[in-house]
Amino acid sequence: MEGTREELSGAPARWWHKLDDGRIQCDLCPRDCKLHDGQRAACFVRANRGGQMILTTYGRSSGFCIDPIEKKPLNHFYPGSSILSFGTAGCNLACKFCQNWDISKSRDMDRLMDQASPETIARAAQRYGAQSVAFTYNDPVIFAEYAMDTADACHALGIKTVAVTAGYMHLAPAREFYAKMDAANIDLKAFTDDFYFKLCVGRLQPILDVITMVHHETNCWIELTTLLIPGHNDSDAELKRLADWCYKELGPDVPLHFSAFHPDYKMQDIPATPPATLTRARKIAMDAGLHYVFTGNVHDRAGESTYCPGCGKAVIERDWYEILSYALDDSGRCKHCGTAIAGRFAHFEKEKAFGSRRIPVHLGT
Questions:
Q1: pLDDT of residue 18 exceeding 60
Q2: Rounded to whole angstroms, how far apart are CA atoms 44 and 2?
Q3: How far apart are CA 168 and CA 202, in angstroms?
Q4: What is the pLDDT of residue 134?
Q5: Domain range spanning residue 138?
Q6: What value, to the nearest 5°, has the Cα angle with vertex 222 and ends 217 and 226?
Q7: Is pLDDT of 309 > 50?
Q8: Would the pTM count as exceeding 0.85?
């Protein structure tokens, strides 16, 4: 925790309680930060002000951008659609390999130049023709109140909401949070507790608990992503355990993305993930029975495309974020054999697909 006596701005936060010694405890995530007046939690954005928990980044963002939905990555959630993406600052994990470290590790609140209410964000998504709003860049767990209020404002206008998250959250707040999300991409960073403890300063089991809860207890569509780091989480044995867990606990239809690591932050000495590692991981997961396994951060048309588990034919062919061909009907069934493809689908017109564009936008209050 960070101790400070600066004047803290922000909005009232949820999920905390008072301790007998005068401190307050944050009950949002497994860190259970215990704070004296004026202290910030490990995430740096939740703080004790006068014996009350506040969220210092409510209504403030590090920036807004219109992205393709496939960039989240979500391959089975309204393919070809656009999504208004934003984040704040801070994170409740401390991953040494963070690839958004300038935002997630930032303690400079001046970075948060864009201010926007939940209603402003929802109206902006509608104005720009974005079908969804994504809470991303840093982890929305730590700005859950802001994300949930924004989700309510979006739903009132028919806009869907997406969380891109590491999933490090207690189950009680997670149930409330994911009940307001239409989709989520959850990082399953590795399949050993040792990895989480040494490289992320966290634990594996709470994330597994959240993933299974979201899949079995909510209507939120989920896809998982594992960033493969050479020598740390890419062994055949670990990948087999991860894939077997997904098949047993989630079934064959939850998409799994294997993503390539690039040297960054505190792991500059580790080489980039070879494409062959991603291909090997994809084969291991598919051999374990998973239907939809993808590769990311590399150019791999086969690994980026969706194949029908019924007939084996490509139903969505992708090249990076471009959709080359689409063979699903409006209900998400394979046009070749009629097999239902797991996901959320609607009418698709190739000429209207958003493609690989990235459009920064500015939202004022």
A1: yes
A2: 7
A3: 8
A4: 98
A5: 61-352
A6: 125
A7: yes
A8: yes
